[in-house]
UniProtKB/TrEMBL annotation:
Coiled coil: none
Domain Pirin N-terminal positions: 24-127
Protein name: RmlC-like cupin
InterPro entries from the UniProt entry: Pirin, Pirin_N_dom, Quercetinase_C, RmlC-like_jellyroll, RmlC_Cupin_sf
Family designation: Belongs to the pirin family.
Domain of life: Eukaryota
Gene3D superfamilies per the UniProt record, alphabetical: Jelly Rolls
Matches recorded under Pfam families: Pirin, Pirin_C_2
Domain Quercetin 2,3-dioxygenase C-terminal cupin: 174-253
Organism: Coccomyxa subellipsoidea
Length: 256
């Protein structure tokens, strides 16, 4: 389908267009926005979403201790396990479906390592906070596969009111980010559909982590992404899994 034929509310970002990091023996990363060796002034962010990296980290390797300030950072583990350690004394390893959250605030140092032998895949996401200088904090949650199976799991919340979508599983109180953002993940069987309404003045970034997905007639394959825009009116969006099902992340936020 040509770009001109796509609904105005959906802008597809093919996986083939993502920047792949400089080759190294332990890491292969795909950058959705400008990061590290990749700089594109036309692709620095999508609203409050500043970084989304799809990382593959080989066994017994990872990101050594380094510092951050004024960023809401979370990692969603897709395969293997990811071990987090930080300057506040937190250290833990988390499996597939878990999320680690780090509010860097006024400054923190941490590491993210794959202590196992198999390759770990995770999505690392940075959100610009609502203000500078927040007190640093760390949090994590583990979720069962059934928590996100054919449902929208509200993985992280924010400072605003979450949308009143159907078939949402909050699993209690989600981790709260210092920004008006809501993060959902879902792992669906074939042909399962979620109908959502993107509110006026809202936007969302969607990533097909595994499998395939149809978004208002736009087809996404594994690692493809899409920008969803509502404009001056709310927009109805249907997310329908392909023949092999789909595992996706949806980041909903105030429009930029």
């Amino acid at each position: 389908m040509s770009t001109a034929a796509l609904p105005r509310s959906v802008r597809k970002i093919p996986a083939a267009q993502l920047h792949v990091s400089k080759p190294t023996w332990w890491l292969e990363s795909r950058f959705h926005f400008s990061f590290a060796d990749y700089y594109n002034p036309q692709n620095n962010n999508f609203g409050a979403l500043r970084v989304l990296n799809d990382d593959l980290v080989k066994g017994e390797a990872g990101f050594g201790t380094h510092g951050h300030r004024d960023a809401e950072i979370f990692s969603y583990i897709v395969d293997g396990e990811l071990t987090h350690a930080d300057s506040m004394g937190n250290k833990e390893s988390l499996p597939r479906g878990a999320v680690q959250y780090l509010s860097a605030g006024s400054g923190i140092r941490h590491s993210e390592m794959n202590d196992g032998e198999e390759t770990t895949r995770f999505l690392q996401v940075w959100i610009t906070p609502d203000q500078r200088g927040h007190k640093p904090q760390y949090g994590s949650r583990e979720h069962r596969p059934e928590d996100r199976h054919n449902r929208l799991l509200h993985l992280l919340g924010g400072t605003g009111t979450p949308p009143a979508w159907k078939n949402v599983n909050s699993c209690g109180q989600p981790i709260i980010l210092h920004q008006d953002v809501n993060v959902y993940v879902s792992e669906n069987d074939a042909a399962v559909a979620h109908d959502i309404e993107l509110g006026e003045g809202r936007q969302a970034y969607l990533v097909a982590i595994e499998g395939s997905l149809d978004v208002n007639g736009t087809s996404l394959e594994q690692r493809d992404a899409a920008e969803l825009l509502s404009g001056s009116q709310s927009t109805q969006v249907t997310l329908k899994s392909g023949s092999q099902g789909c595992h996706f992340m949806l980041i909903e936020m105030a429009a930029s």
